[in-house]
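for the recovery benchmark. tokens below, seq after
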């Protein structure tokens, strides 16, 4: 594995490899099993795997955790190499933003709800940095986790709208044994917060089961159920609970015959956790494992 910190060097390394299939896994580092699952998928499907590690200041709002976001490039390099990465691209902020950018990429409508409503400007930051990474790496395939399902919808829309010659590959959410979605931010949680945080995945799983059994047929019932279930944990403060058509992210009420996302964002102290499940009532079984 080669660690590369400049755009120029990465382009030079990739130039002779352009006839191979190049896979990109964009991350903010502090790698965990979720990231590793994306790398493994890229390794299976591609000849060359590029992992980017960049904590993108553009996608953090004022007062968010940009400064304290966990960083450990040495540890990331070991994990990346073991997982089969060929190029670890770890640019500095100055390398990615040598001057104050006057250009940004905005995906409208999909970004005015869920995390987009709670974090104004967040998805502009995401769409802009993903665009830059797509131009720098020119990957054939790019791997994103369904843990951030709205991000997948936004990036897929952007790729279609702007004719990026890349296939977006959504990958299932990796979870801890007790169901908590693996996240770099989980390290912020106190022991008690960590225990109570299992309510997100447990609640989502219960909703998926109820819908599957036909006991829950409407979005409002799922929202009510989750709000009550999550509020039963004293340390949990709900940011949002919502059910929307996926990937359109439009409002729905009747769940039957639809593909929907049930999405939650909950604060435990200063830590904001998100999780979701996709219910596909178009198919025989809900894709709750996604
Ligand atoms: P991040 O470093 O948090 O920006 O995440 C980088 C990529 O890894 C994104 O596409 C995430 O959706 C994905 N990811 C993060 N956590 C998980 C997880 N638990 N399971 C699968 N993918 C994940």
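predicted aa per position
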């Amino acid at each position: 594995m080669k660690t590369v910190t400049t755009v120029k060097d990465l382009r030079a390394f990739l130039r002779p490899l352009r006839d191979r299939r190049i896979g990109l896994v964009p991350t903010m580092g502090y790698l965990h099993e979720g990231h590793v699952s994306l790398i493994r998928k890229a390794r299976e499907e591609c000849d060359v795997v590029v992992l980017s590690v960049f904590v993108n200041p553009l996608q953090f709002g004022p007062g968010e955790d940009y400064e304290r976001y966990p960083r450990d490039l040495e540890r990331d390099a070991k994990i990346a190499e073991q997982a089969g990465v060929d190029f670890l691209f770890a640019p500095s902020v100055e390398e990615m933003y040598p001057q104050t950018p006057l250009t940004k990429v905005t995906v409208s409508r999909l970004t005015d709800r869920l995390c987009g409503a709670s974090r104004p400007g967040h998805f502009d930051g995401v769409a802009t940095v993903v665009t830059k990474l797509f131009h720098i790496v020119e990957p054939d395939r790019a791997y994103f986790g369904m843990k951030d399902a709205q991000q997948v919808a936004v990036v897929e829309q952007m790729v279609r709208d702007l004719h990026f010659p890349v296939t977006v590959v959504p990958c299932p959410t990796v979870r801890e044994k007790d169901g908590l979605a693996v996240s770099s931010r989980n390290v912020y949680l106190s022991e008690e917060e960590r225990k109570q945080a299992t309510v997100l995945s447990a609640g989502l799983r219960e909703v998926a089961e109820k819908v599957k059994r036909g006991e829950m047929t409407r979005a409002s019932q799922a929202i009510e159920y989750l709000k009550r279930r999550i509020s039963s944990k004293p340390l949990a403060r709900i940011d949002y609970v919502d059910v929307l058509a996926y990937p359109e992210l439009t409002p729905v009420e009747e769940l039957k015959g639809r593909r929907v996302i049930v999405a939650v964002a909950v604060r435990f102290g200063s830590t904001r956790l998100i999780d979701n499940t996709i219910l596909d009532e178009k198919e025989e079984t809900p894709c709750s494992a996604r």
